[in-house]
Write a structure and sequence with these properties.
Two copies of one chain form a homodimer.
Chain A: E1 2-4, E2 14-15, E3 17-22, E4 28-33, E5 36-40, E6 45-51, H1 55-63, E7 65-70, H2 76-84, H3 92-96, E8 100-102, E9 109-111, E10 116-127, E11 131-144, H4 156-159, E12 163-165, E13 170-180
Chain lengths: 190, 190
């Protein structure tokens, strides 16, 4: 039976994006954001929501750019740290030993050791409430070559992305393959 | 080594939301959307992007409401179908045998057999490109009581939500718990 559990920010799955930016002095910063996702196929766009108070907020506004780095299981601890520490007082790349790499196409750094990085140019800023949503156009994706499948697509089973369970405040991995999209439901078509 | 794989709509994980709406005649419809996610903590909001051509598009505009239903592993086939068929020509609830339930707080149906449903009131409409983003304020969540943990939160391990791997066009389940959020990264704090 269904019961009401009230208004909450709860969907499953939620991503563990790490947003890469440069501050005004050119110092690279990394911040974890779970409020986001792809929001348009053409132009290809990704949305991420940040509070105004985050150090990365003004970095994105000023540089008009950010990267979205996908957290792999191996670096879940680092991404948890990226979500708690502030780039105002800490050099998060130095603290974690991870390596910022200047993007080819936008004025933002991606994380060398993370498997997938989306280079995004700021397209729109949407005022919602305590969070402001940045919509970035994906100009390119950088991926670790050894994680690609035979079609040249990053294999989720090799990328091993981390998921976030918001109200449980816990991280999870990806499980088994369940089926082929745009295919397994065809038998239901009437 | 990282290589460029071009601009794509690829992040991991991506959700398998089923959007519940009523059409002008009051017929319930269900449509799958993978482009979306939580976008604000206060007011609690969720974003979903739809093409203008989808039957659900005008349903949302006219009723100013929708539900977001989380696909469980058990119904991955039904959600795949909900993403391919159109409510213009098919009664998708009849075809799947699933049950639409009128939401308590908004003018949209949720799916009785799905574990979690967010009742959303349309707050903003954002024009992006081929997709239009609807931002809904989450007025309530309905959850199956037997899936709640000791704190009253839906347990992701019991909900068994489905993930979508966009370019691979495949569905996956959730794997193992990796750690506690806002906790495991603390040892890195300098």
């Amino acid at each position: 039976m269904k019961i009401s559990i009230g208004p909450r920010t709860l969907v499953y799955p939620t991503p563990v994006f790490v947003i890469g930016t440069y501050d005004k002095a050119g110092k690279p910063n990394a911040m974890t954001a779970a409020w986001g996702g792809i929001c348009c196929s053409n132009p290809p766009c990704v949305a991420v929501s940040l509070r105004r108070t985050r150090y990365s907020f003004n970095n994105i506004v000023k540089r008009q750019a950010f990267t979205v780095n996908i957290t792999p299981e191996k670096f879940v601890r680092e991404s948890d740290y990226f979500g708690m520490a502030s780039g105002r007082s800490q050099d998060k790349f130095a603290a974690t030993g991870l390596t910022p790499v200047k993007s080819d196409l936008v004025d933002a750094p991606y994380i060398k050791e993370f498997p997938l990085a989306l280079e995004c140019s700021l397209l729109q800023t949407v005022e919602i409430g305590v969070h402001i949503q940045f919509i970035g156009e994906v100009l390119d994706i950088k991926a670790d070559e050894e994680l690609l499948d035979d079609e040249g697509v990053p294999d989720i089973a090799k990328v091993k992305p981390v998921l976030f369970a918001p109200e449980m405040q816990a991280y999870y991995g990806v499980g088994s393959r369940l089926g082929k999209a745009f295919s397994i439901g065809k038998s239901i078509e009437s």
